[in-house]
Amino acid sequence: MADLDKLRSQRWLARRDFRSHMHGSRIMQMGYDRKDWEGKPVIAILNSWSEFNPCHMHFRQRVDDVKRGVLQTGGFPLEMPTISLNDSLVKPSALLYRNMLAMEVEEMIRCYPVDGVVLMGGCDKTGPAMLLGATSAGVPAIFLPAGPMLRGNSRGKTLGSGSDGFKYWDDRRAGLITEEQWGGIMSGIARGPGTCMTMGTASTMAAIAEALGMALPGASSIPAVDASHQRMSAEAGRRIVEMVHGDVRPATIQTRQAFLNAITVAMAMGCSTNAIVHVIAQARRAGHAIGLEEFDRISREVPVIANIRPNGTSAYLMEDLYYAGGLPALMKRLEHHLHLDQMTVSGKTLAENIAGAEVYNDDVIRALDNPVYAEGSLAVLRGNLAPDGCVIKPSAMDSKFLQYRGPAVVFDDYPSLKKELDNEETTLTADHVIVLRNVGPKGAPGMPEWGMIPIPTKLLKQGVRDMLRISDARMSGTSYGACVLHVAPESHVGGNLALLRTGDIVSVDVARRSIAVEVSDEELARRRARWVSPPQRFERGYGRMFVEHILQADQGCDLDFLLTAEGSPAGEPDI
Ligand code: FES
Fold first, then answer.
1. Measured in angstroms, how far is the CA atom of residue 259 from the centroid of ligand 1?
2. Which intervals hold domain Dihydroxy-acid/6-phosphogluconate dehydratase C-terminal (predicted)?
3. N or C end of the chain, less CB within 10 A?
4. Segment (H or E) for 484
5. Which one of 56, 149, 195, 478 would you pick to mutate in the ligand 1 pocket, going by the greatest count of ligand atoms within 8 A of its CB?
6. Rounded to the nearest 10 degrees, what angle do helices 326-333 and 256-269 cross at?
């Protein structure tokens, strides 16, 4: 049991001086009495509910379940709204604002009388952002994932977020479905509260939070509308109070081994490529030098066993993973790859969390010797086109591109690319390698999810469904195809991608982990001498701060001044 006098909030509320008197009067202004807070841990429930974020629409009610848990355990809960980032609606990219939310979380914890936090997030960047902020703030924290939506449905067909939108949009452009059918997909693909129910970034990052030990066992796969989600929320409220008493901080849980567990689980899940930038950033905030090497090494060791779209050929979605036993069952299958002695927010080790877990459907959670894909879902490629690395997702692409060589067609911006994709007279063929540049962390800025470059309409009508595509952008976790992403350094800062010309031959060899442009070093040097840096976007405000301080994709896209090495976590304010 923590010494209550040592609680951070007591510095604001427990003294018998003028300032404490004033602070108490402001708490009483909300109708609370002294017995509501005196001698109790103050728990901030950071809620990213917003009417602009349908993935979090149930958080408005769910916060009451968290409060119930906090009150049952003798804490004093106060809800704290945060900005909310809906990955579909925020433009040009929610990643642009991930670090803004992370800063908000860190600073709000720092400046208010907070002893512990429940982080209510889920839609793609919100979870990583909140965990980044809480990691730097350093107070006890527990992540409460929003939970996936139920399966989509239209005309009796199951629909998966993003993946089926992309698939049927290709069919629409190829003239294979009617306007009415297309309208049915719009109304049926997102049927209620929760995050994308494919193995997109939201599902990936929730699973990573659980594997890391920062979310309760099983929390990441519970559908948003399931009553279990309410019970899990109340349990999160109970646990955070106990964690404050036990002084269990993120640094206790987020060890290097815990991050390796998280990467292992991500690979077995067939994770979103976005996991890379978020995990690297968070590990670095926690003080661990984890980079692309760890992802590639673990990818070679761990097969994809979650048979969830967009991996594999099944129609299974997160709802099916939940019924199959959820993440604890998947981790049970992986136990020989995991560091089981790691402590988690449940107050138990990972081994204890998964001790009784069972798989109820062997086609959804495959056995290790019957995987969806024999290696992990991601591969890190390097070569003269990406000296600092880039990423491809072999588990969700046509295998003929695992080793490929073809002529590049280069586009400097999205509008000119789009015009050519829609051009019925285009000279692009299925053999070409489509390249989009200036869409990286600084160039776009914010590295939008434009990396799954659409197949040209003319080729779609010929039945082409995959091509090799290369960019310094990201792609949605719900996307698929032979898309080389996160090319680092990006073209905007003078990476070799900026020197590529239409007609250059590009080669990719996933087994060798290589990517190259077949142009001599001397010719690249000549081109570099003539290269002119493009103008910076965003002249003012947060966007300007972002482009002046953003790190490259292989370093997690954090802001350089937020790195832990830049200063100690959350210095205490003078009160
Ligand atoms: Fe919110 Fe996909 S748009 S999780």
1. 24
2. 363-557
3. N
4. strand 483-484
5. 195
6. 100
The 10s digit of each residue's pLDDT in 432-464 is 999 999 999 999 999 999 999 999 999 999 999
Query: What spacing in Å lies between the alpha carbon of 126 and ligand 1's midpoint?
Result: 10
Instruction: Using a cut of 0.90, tell me whether the model's pTM lies above it.
Output: yes
Q: How far apart are CA 451 and CA 219, in angstroms?
A: 30
- 185 contacts: CB under 8 Å, gap ≥ 6: 154, 159, 164, 165, 168
Q: Quote helix, strand, coil % in the chain, to nearest 5.
A: 40, 15, 45
Taking the chain, what is the end-to-end CA distance rounded to the nearest angstrom?
25
Of all residues in the chain, what percent carry a pLDDT higher than 70? Answer: 98
> What's the angle, vertex CA 287, arms to CA 284 and CA 288, rounded to 5?
70
Please state the ipTM of this predicted complex. 1.00
What is the architecture, at CATH level 2, of domain 40-152+190-354?
3-Layer(aba) Sandwich (3.40)
Dihedrals φ, ψ of 195, to 5°? Answer: -90, 170
Long-range CB contact pairs, 351-359, < 8 A, 24+: 353/217, 353/328, 354/217, 354/328, 354/329, 357/325, 357/326, 357/328, 357/329, 357/331, 357/332, 358/325, 358/329, 358/332, 359/324, 359/325, 359/329, 359/330, 359/332, 359/333
Q: For ligand 1, what atom is nearest to the CA of residue 478?
A: 2
Candidate of 123, 125, 126 to mutate for ligand 1, largest count of ligand atoms within 8 Å of Cβ: 123
Query: What does the CA dihedral 164, 167, 173, 175 come to, rounded to 10 degrees?
Result: -90
Q: Domain locations in the chain?
A: 40-152+190-354, 379-530
Q: Average pLDDT of 88-97?
A: 94
The answer, yes or no, to whether the previous bond of 489 is cis (omega within 30 of 0) is yes
The residue whose CA is least distant from atom 2 of ligand 1 is 196
The preferred substitution site among 124, 163, 220 for testing ligand 1, maximizing ligand atoms within 8 Å of CB, is 124
Region of residue 286 (phi > 0: left; psi between -120 and 50: alpha; otherwise: beta): alpha
CATH superfamily, domain 379-530, is IlvD/EDD C-terminal domain-like (3.50.30.80)
User: Cα separation of 96 and 446, whole Å?
Assistant: 4
Contacts of 469 (CB under 8 A, 6+ apart): 433, 434, 435, 436, 451, 452, 453, 481, 482, 483, 484
Ligand 1 — pocket residues by CB below 6 A? 55, 86-88, 123-124, 161, 195-196, 200, 202
Give the position, in ligand 1's atom list, of the atom nearest the Cα of 161.
Answer: 2
Q: For residues 347 and 484, what is the distance between their CA atoms, to the nearest angstrom?
A: 40
